[in-house]
Design a protein that fits this description.
Number of strands: 11
Distance between the termini: 40 Å
Largest sheet: 7 strands, mixed
Strand content: over 45%
Number of helices: 0
Structural class: mainly beta
Shape: globular
Order of helices and strands: EEEEEEEEEEE
């Protein structure tokens, strides 16, 4: 069984920063892409950022472009999200996701159905 575990959530004032991390454990697997999604109360889960292992290509939602940075860890299947200039509208539960393909696929890397494994989520709260 694969487990993704997020850490680093918390509460911060607007304009502050937080760094989220995600690590996989359990059954070994190879992912091609990993991503962060978030879900605010009463809203659908939405894409935040993605990164591929092959060349480190990244993608960001327009709402976080220029403020958030996704990066790969040194260990396989680890990923971080540096969140700067946080806004109250960034308040949400943040989820780490990974696909189980291990090889290139021609996708957007922005859709939840492209990912096979999910973490339990970590709460991020930004106060004004």
């Amino acid at each position: 069984q694969v487990q993704l575990v997020e850490s680093g959530g918390g509460s911060v004032q607007a304009g502050g920063s937080l760094r989220l991390s995600c690590a996989a454990s359990g059954r070994p697997f190879r992912s091609y892409a990993m991503a962060w999604f978030r879900q605010a109360p009463g809203k659908e889960r939405e894409f935040v950022a993605s990164i591929t292992w092959a060349d480190g290509s990244t993608g960001y939602a327009d709402s976080v472009q220029g403020r958030f940075i996704i990066s790969r860890g040194n260990a396989r299947n680890t990923v971080s999200l540096q969140m700067n200039s946080l806004k109250p509208e960034d308040t949400a539960v943040y989820y780490c996701a990974a696909d189980g393909r291990g090889a290139f696929y021609d996708g957007s890397y922005r859709l939840s159905q492209e990912y096979d494994y999910w973490g339990q989520g970590t709460q991020v709260t930004v106060s004004s």
